[in-house]
Specification:
alpha/beta, Arginase, Chain A, two-stranded antiparallel ribbon
Amino acid sequence: MYHPALAAYDFGEGHPFSGERFTRFMAAIEGYPDILSRLTVTEPSPAGDDLIGLAHSLSYIEMVRALERRSGYLSVDTRVMPGSVEAARMIVGASVGAVTAARRHGLALSFGGLHHAGRDYGEGFCIFNDVAVAALHLLQSGIERVMVIDTDAHQGNGTMDIFYEDPRVLFVSLHQDPMTLYPGTGFVTQVGKGEGKGFTVNVPMPVRAGDSEFRIAIREIVIPLIDRFSPRLIIRNGGSDPLKDDILTDLGLSLDGLSLMTGTIAAAARDRGIPLADLFLSGYGSRITEGWLAIVRGTLGLPIDIALPDGREYGNRWNADSIRDAMLRTLEQLKRELRPYWGDL
């Protein structure tokens, strides 16, 4: 799902989120015929208030419109500039289009993942929560169970808040330790509330967690939960910001590790006959395009090489043993928290 209007989702000069990322990626993908031959590019339609209202209050939608008229701020890092709202509507429409297409074809990809917007708030470069709207649209259309796998380096606090009491959506987030990164939420003890207790799963990754740590988390937490929950559709969201050289985060994934992560999730969905909508949007610094290509490469299962601008990868000079130990301690604690709801994982 792609529309040139996405380029208007931009927060101004000097901001780490620039709208040119979309056009730059679409230009780059022209150089990968193996990818293009597998995809049909479809233009989405912008979401209206009725669709956005599935996840957001009318008062919030009206406030966003008012802020756009005066270039106001939802938060210190999220300015609503002229054109921002229409572009955000397009992202929501694209994500809803992606889940709809995934139901028909088994797999769809789109630019999405504005997971920091909650029902009555926006922050963290996120105006409307397209992930939540897409999941609620599926529930409204008769899908009984939706699984959201959020692999963004920043925890998806908005998505979590919207579904915190909803057992129809299993929200699983792999993110950098919230003690060390915005938004400061996503601890293993945050497991949901009321009827939704057990249906929020947070996997805080230690600083500098790399390929092996993500592989363990996917194998020991994500895949078993897919089998226990048996979702009717999976939404994976998250861009390139878990990469080791992202300028806003402190994780340690390589491009190959990012492909392996998305590829493992896609293969699990495919092997079980579960439709998958894969959404990516984030990433900060010089490796956004390459990171997104790695995501698509993994999701499609294509053995292609990704050209790097400087022709080389960067080595991992961190203490691998201490990172692994921290990861294993986190997983042990998380499994204890989840045992009352999911048994032994």
